[in-house]
Amino acid sequence: MDIMDTARLNIKKRREMKGFRQQDMADKLSMNIRTYQNLENGETKLDLERLEQIAGILETNMEELLKQESTYIHQEVKDGGSGSGSGFNTTGNVYNYNFEKEILDKLLSAKDNEIELLKEENKYLKEKIDQLLSK
């Protein structure tokens, strides 16, 4: 995945997090909906000037839009409704990524490391706040 593909994914994610529709973004960028859709899905080249405009609308910076996130796991289960015991259909259009135990262990380890880093950061910030309040 190239850097602009990463940017497009981050734009879509941030747009949805802000509750913006594609039409909202198109209006804010003074373009029609189809043009914006082409930008977001990669049919039209996303240049740095446009990326900067989008970053402003999404209240972030270009670096954040270009930053590649850590591993994303997507799993969908389609309700089978057949009464076959589990209540889930495991055939058809079901996306189920069967990760091996080793990969899952690495993901859990990365999550644990991230939690520890956040705890350390929180401790540091609390100490700094306490220092500022004691002055």
TrEMBL record:
<dbReference type="GO" id="GO:0003677">
    <property type="term" value="F:DNA binding"/>
</dbReference>
<dbReference type="InterPro" id="IPR001387">
    <property type="entry name" value="Cro/C1-type_HTH"/>
</dbReference>
<dbReference type="Pfam" id="PF01381">
    <property type="entry name" value="HTH_3"/>
</dbReference>
<feature type="coiled-coil region">
    <location>
        <begin position="101"/>
        <end position="135"/>
    </location>
</feature>
<keyword id="KW-0175">Coiled coil</keyword>
<feature type="domain" description="HTH cro/C1-type">
    <location>
        <begin position="11"/>
        <end position="65"/>
    </location>
</feature>
<dbReference type="InterPro" id="IPR010982">
    <property type="entry name" value="Lambda_DNA-bd_dom_sf"/>
</dbReference>
<protein>
    <recommendedName>
        <fullName>HTH cro/C1-type domain-containing protein</fullName>
    </recommendedName>
</protein>
